[in-house]
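I would like you to sit down with the pair of lines that follows and say whether tokens and residues agree.
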Amino acid sequence: MTFIICEPCIETKDTACVDACPVDCIHPRSDEGTFEPETMLYIDPEECIDCGACVPECPVEAIFPEDEVPEQWLNYIDINYEWYGQKK
């Protein structure tokens, strides 16, 4: 299972979750060229180790375990996978 970043991250892009991730699976980082044009951050479903270290660091409570994503944000599961060129 992976964690999914949802709507509250849009236009927030707080990178505290990036710093907390032990496997560097949250992108784009602020030092990457894709950071500025993106509206939110994404978690790589293949790299995520399901540790949950990012969850308490998110100031807008935008990160959920994939199987606990609120119904109104279920489309963000596909959005996160697609950002990494993957299908759910």
